[in-house]
Each structure stands twice: as structure tokens, then as C-alpha cells.
Amino acid sequence: MTDDAPELRASDADRERVAEVLRDALAEGRLDMTEFEERLDATYKARTYGELAPITRDLPVGAAPAAPAAPRVSMTKEPERAGGWAGRITGAEPSSTWAVAVMSGFQRKGRWTVPGRFNSFAFWGGGEIDLREADFSAGEVVLNCVAIMGGMQVIVPPGVEVIVRGIGIMGGFDHREEGVPGDPGAPRVVVTGFAFWGGVGVERKVTRAERQRLKEERRQEKLERRAARRELHSAVREEAMDAHRRMLDDHRDMLREHREDRRERRDLRREDRDRRRRGED
Length: 281
Fold this sequence. Notes:
Elements: H1 12-27, H2 33-45, H3 49-52, E1 98-102, E2 105-108, E3 113-114, E4 117-123, E5 126-130, E6 135-136, E7 140-148, E8 151-156, E9 161-164, E10 167-169, E11 172-173, E12 188-196, E13 199-204, H4 208-280
Parallel strand pairs: 1-4, 2-5, 3-6, 4-7, 5-8, 7-12, 8-13, 9-12, 10-12, 11-13
Helix pairs in contact: 1-2
């Protein structure tokens, strides 16, 4: 979606797809370093499809050197994925197969297709590989991470099985997420590579949308508990007030009976005096 809707806002995943084409073009010699840096800077500054489309208009998409003029990078929004893991293991072409950070950083996040093997390298820099919203080209993917005096962070969604096989020298790989069984049909992520004076972290997080949904659920549960407590307190208060009213009614009845009893005794004494007086007369 470019020419027909150039004003639509582009996402981080859209910018990453364009950046990957630029990296491939640099590796193939289609762009020199100055052109690459200028276009990459324009890519990350782009806000709409209309700004992204011209950046790769003269570049082929794909690795075949002899390919004729290939189409531009498609900015068409993909349809919503099917529910469950089956809809995310697509077997499609990966949108990115490698990443490099030299005294800088990189990110692979948002909606992107993870290849069967993703190679990444960080030297005096860092990287983030976020799989929470990604599709997978295969049921098992290998993330090969090499960190030299740098670091990388791998973020996986709940339900994914993680296996860590990396080697660390004066550095290390995070094994905390290993041993957690995956959901049926979920992909398996193998984290491998080498870390020297650096580290590769692995953590499990829900997506921002899921976190917001859980937050909303907790808020709703809190409101329901608060309403239940108010209802309970109201019921207890009403019961206490009823008991107090009954006690007051009983007390008033007792006072009324006591007054009536005193009145009857007083009347009897008066009648007795009257009889005695009539007898004396």
C-alpha cells in the first residue's frame, strides 16, 4: 500500500523491512556506504508509506544478483493472522536473516517473519530480537548470537520452548527460560552462539496488547471485588441496623409493659383505698 494510500502511518516492522533491503543492497554492492547511510537514515525518519516507498524503488527485492527490476518493498498490511500457533508458523520468506551492531545497536521487533536461522553480531554494541509478535518460517528457529564486549536480548512469548546452547567466555548466556515446556504446536527457539566479555539474555514476556488486556482484567477484577466488599459491608451494616432497630423495639415494648404494669398496680391501690374509705363511712 504505497501509491494508493501514501498518507498511512508506517510501523516499526515496515521500516525494518526497508532497512533489510538496504542492507542486502549494500552487501551486493548496489549501494555504497554513503548512499546506504543516507537511505537508512531516511528510513528510520520516515513516518508514512509515502516517505518509505521511494527509498527502495530502484532496488530489487531478493538475493538473486541477476534479477530484473524487482518490485518495490510491499507496504500492504497483511491480513490478521489465524488464531493459535498454526497461524504464526507460515513457512513464508523471512523478512530479515541477519543483524549487525558495531558500536551501535539493532532491533528486530514487531510484526516480522523469523527465518530458520537468524545470525546476529554485536561488537561494543547491543541488539534486541523480539519474537512476541513475529511469524515463524519454520517450527524450529535458530538464533545465532555473537556478542563481543556487547550484549543481546532475546524476548520470546509465553508458550514457546527455549533451548540455549551458547558458549560464554568472561560472559554468558541466560538459561533461566530453559526447561519450560512449550504449548502444543508452538515453535521451538534455539539460542546459540558465542559471548566474550558480553552476554545474551533470554526472557519471556507477553505482548503489549496482552499486557494491557491482563491489566484491564485485573482492574475489572479489582472493581468487582470492591463492589462485592461494598455490597457485603452494606448488607452487614443493614443487618446491624435491623438488629439495633429490633433491640430498640424490644426495649420500647418492655418500657411500655412496665408502665402499664405500674398503672395497673396504681389503679388497684386506688380502688383499695376507695373501698376502705367507703367501709369506714
